[in-house]
Specification:
Elements lengths: L2 E6 L3 E8 L2 E9 L6 H12 L5 E6 L7 E3 L6 E3 H7 L4 E6 H7 L10 E4 L9 E6 L3 E9 L2 E6 L12 H11 L13 H12 L5 H10 L3 H24 L4 E4 L2 H6 L8 H5 L14 E3 L5 H9 L10 E2 L2
Parallel strand pairs: 1-4, 4-7, 9-12, 12-13
Antiparallel strand pairs: 1-2, 2-3, 5-6, 7-14, 8-13, 9-10, 10-11
Helix pairs in contact: 3-10, 5-7, 6-7
Length: 315
């Protein structure tokens, strides 16, 4: 039975065949080029000659309902409809950051870069968080010989400004939307929001990142602001979930800005001096640079005991 792992983001969808030796036939496609996930899935099968009997799909957005609406994406689909249309025998749909978390059972593996040192206890939860098209948040909770992933929408918690400049950003954004979330400032679109609100002009996130890496200026200031806010968002999430084992930062935004982390406010904001700040002093932080982590985690999800009740079958 060929298991196809799928990682659906706001911009790209990735496919791979998951086997005992790892991932094969990896493909990445632009979601905008296909009217639906089913169409992209069919194109992948046609292009690779793979016959799929099962699929484990990681999706950006809530996935508990029978109908799935992909966040920051034009795709919507019915789980039962996709199962039938793709001719599958088994289908599992999980949140994309559940998959990212399941890919990080060993946070020091797969080329992860340690950006803050620490020796967190192995029996504590591990936080996985990532700014990309949105802000994904999950955690792995140890359970027997395995883990139970937390599926939530932590990127949409309220923004928590920590200085006057961030309060000004908050007020400006509040004039535009009814609820200001962490994702409004910690994500690709969030970086664009910061730059726009600080400068009065618009620039795409990839261009802001390139300009920030090139030298000082408005783009560098916007990037530093985002990294500082990220430090607070992660500290809040660690304190909320008790993720003393550590943190893995996923997503493409921070990986692009990685050389700026050391001089940014990130570490100071993460290891803050608040009432329980001492609990953050020895929490290690890694940066994931593996573009296929979502696919690896989707494959792991199909064999994760706590998720078996979510698998739907033909007939």
């Amino acid at each position: 039975m060929a298991l196809v792992a799928v990682d659906v983001g706001g911009t790209n969808v990735r496919f791979a065949v998951a086997g005992a030796s790892g991932l094969g036939d990896i493909r990445s496609m632009l979601c905008a080029n296909y009217p639906s996930l089913a169409a992209a899935f069919a194109a992948y099968l046609a292009g690779t000659g793979v016959t799929a009997k099962a699929a484990s799909i990681a999706v950006a957005g809530p996935v508990q309902a029978a109908e799935v609406d992909v966040t920051n994406n034009h795709w919507q689909f019915s789980k039962a409809g996709l199962l039938a249309e793709a001719g599958l025998e088994r289908l599992l749909v999980v949140n994309d950051f559940t998959a990212q978390a399941l890919a990080q059972t060993d946070p020091s593996a797969h080329g992860n870069l340690q950006v803050l040192p620490g020796t967190g206890p192995a029996d504590a939860p591990l936080l996985v968080i990532g700014p990309g098209t949105g802000l994904g948040v999950s955690a792995l909770v140890p359970a027997g010989d395995g883990y139970v992933p937390i599926e939530g929408e932590g990127g949409h918690v309220g923004m928590s400004p920590q200085n006057e400049a961030e309060m000004a950003l908050m007020r400006a954004r509040k004039a535009e939307v009814p609820h200001v979330s962490a994702e409004d400032f910690v994500s690709g679109p969030g970086l664009e929001n910061i730059y726009r609100l600080q400068t009065g002009t618009e620039l795409a996130a990839p261009e802001i990142g390139k300009a920030a890496m090139a030298g000082d200026g408005p783009a560098r200031e916007a990037a530093m602001t985002m990294l500082g806010i990220l430090g607070t968002v992660i500290a809040d999430a660690v304190l909320t979930t008790g993720s003393w084992r550590g943190v893995v930062i996923a997503g493409g935004i921070v990986a692009q800005l990685q050389p700026l982390l050391a001089e940014s406010p990130f570490a100071e904001r993460f290891r803050h001096g608040g009432t329980m700040g001492r609990l953050l002093a020895d929490v290690p932080v890694w940066l994931s640079v593996d573009p296929h982590a979502g696919l690896r985690g989707a494959a792991v999800a199909m064999a994760t005991p706590s998720l078996q009740a979510r698998v739907i079958t033909a007939g």
